[in-house]
Design goal:
The chain has helices at about 15-25, 65-80, 100-110, 125-130, 150-165, 205-210, and strands at about 5-10, 30-35, 50, 55, 60, 85-90, 90-95, 120, 140-145, 145-150, 165-170, 175-180, 185-190, 195-200. With about 230 residues, it is of the alpha+beta class. A 6-stranded mixed β-sheet has the order 11-2-1-14-13-12. A 3-stranded antiparallel β-sheet has the order 3-10-6, with helices on one face. The protein is elongated, with a radius of gyration of 21 Å. The chain starts with a strand and ends in a 21-residue tail after the last helix.
Length: about 230
């Protein structure tokens, strides 16, 4: 096992695994650490959707075509290394829950330059015929390109792929950090240790536990977007 890495990533969820992949592609030496195992935190949700119609009114997400293309390419890559099928193009149906939402959703649909074949509007009758029994008021949008992903299986397959791409993975083992003059020392509970130039926290609110000695700590939020701008 290498004793020195350019980057040490703490947290093996969607952010940590994806970042490890990007750094490794750029020829950096990378290790991925999670004492609770792969997808043990918020990323361990049973299912995920790749859905470009975001928010209450099904607004086309920012840079949607680039994002969708990158996600689909990544899913195909990892699927080629896995014997378990973990994603499928199921489509995403977004029914409106009241007349106000329906009007805004329809306006969004009509005024947005959707990529061809991505989105169509269904009135209430059409939508209920398409999906009998669903609650709907005024209609909704159908996105045939929507993907459903078994996130935990995807991340487990991703981590296995990374281990074959020279990313060292340390799961289910506790660790402690020590700052040296020009690097960090990571000491594992099994008495092994490594050195790294950089520590990257991708373990969500759990980072508070290791940042407790720092003056600024994170505040946990759910379903929010933080926009940070420099001066």
């Amino acid at each position: 096992m290498p004793e020195h890495f350019d980057y040490c990533i703490l947290g093996a969820g969607l952010a940590g695994v994806s970042l490890a992949h990007e750094l490794a592609k750029r020829n950096h030496t990378v290790c991925l650490i999670d004492p609770n195992g792969i997808a043990s935190g918020a990323s361990g949700t049973p299912l995920g959707l790749v859905n470009p119609a975001t928010g209450r009114y099904a607004t086309l997400s920012w840079e949607a075509e680039k994002c969708y293309s990158a996600i689909e390419a990544n899913l195909r890559l990892i699927q080629s290394y896995s014997l378990i099928q973990f994603y499928k193009k199921t489509g995403v149906l977004r029914p409106a829950l009241d007349e106000k939402i329906a009007a805004k959703m329809k306006s969004n649909f009509e005024t947005t330059n959707w990529p061809q074949g991505w989105c169509s509007w269904m009135n209430e009758k059409e939508l209920k015929l398409f999906h009998p029994g669903i609650e709907c008021v005024g209609g909704g949008v159908w996105l045939p390109i929507g993907l459903t992903v078994d996130i935990a299986t995807y991340l487990s397959s991703f981590a296995e792929y990374l281990s074959n791409q020279n990313v060292e993975c340390f799961f289910n083992v506790n660790y402690s950090l020590k700052r040296n003059q020009s690097s960090w020392s990571v000491q594992f509970s099994n008495s092994s240790s490594i050195q790294t130039e950089n520590i990257i926290y991708t373990n969500g609110v759990e980072a508070n536990e290791v940042l407790e000695n720092y003056p600024k700590r994170m505040t946990p939020v759910k379903g929010q977007l933080a926009i940070l701008e420099s001066n």
